[in-house]
């Protein structure tokens, strides 16, 4: 059972702070073999749109301008790393659209998934997902997808329990302008080992490897999915699962993995909140547009959830932030389940009987 309650919040922009303007040239590379590449970074005639976010538990921030990513320490303002997705590295006419931190609880290394929109006259366009290591200042892997990516979200190992995803070595959810949602296997340990071997080589590799992704539909036979997964690992290509398609497909604006339900919340451009069960890779709830008179296109741009401590039911509150172009409206959705299931390691989740 799902019940929705509506609350409207006023947003005060008086305490906001702009990111500093970043120059088009990246900083000094950490590896000498990259110096020629750095010199070739594109200089924009106009200042591209900037995006930014907080990573490493509030210690660092990332700022993107066009095809250049900069990592900065928040306390000191020091530049930690800079990376340009430029033509000498194998990227042509790319622009950064989304950045997502991977394995945020890992204190040893900081990894980012970066989606790049590609503009090519020869094709209708595609997107790349680059896995970038800040400490190594290297792209560990870059996969090409025949979609226009609009959202990324890291899916934790807890959220992957009791599903096909538990075979993945790191998982990321991808949302697209076409309304397609993919779950990608990062195969992260192999990527890190391969990158370390590449750095030890006498002649460094100047271009990043861009590989295809082998995508299968969720409703294939289980044996067929496992076979394709094994073959993708053996062939050195990426593997992805496409979940149940959204009715009346609409661009995905935001993604929120929910450990408590082993699920994924999806916010769309037309304001719908869609809930997936990742164990079945199927939709369990599709709805949640704003009520009149705010129902005009109001995309869900951000989501969060909490488990209420004072509610005796097995439930959680999902907050959806809608952008109406006039103001921001926060909507709280109450999601109620039948029972709580406890695991041996202390983790628990909700499910329907």
UniProtKB/TrEMBL annotation:
Pfam families: ELYS-bb (PF16687). Residues 57-326 form the ELYS beta-propeller domain. Coiled coil: none annotated. InterPro entries: ELYS-bb, ELYS/MEL-28_NucAsmblyFactor, WD40_repeat_dom_sf. It comes from the Eukaryota. This is Protein ELYS. It comes from Ceratitis capitata. The lineage of its organism: Eukaryota, Metazoa, Ecdysozoa, Arthropoda, Hexapoda.
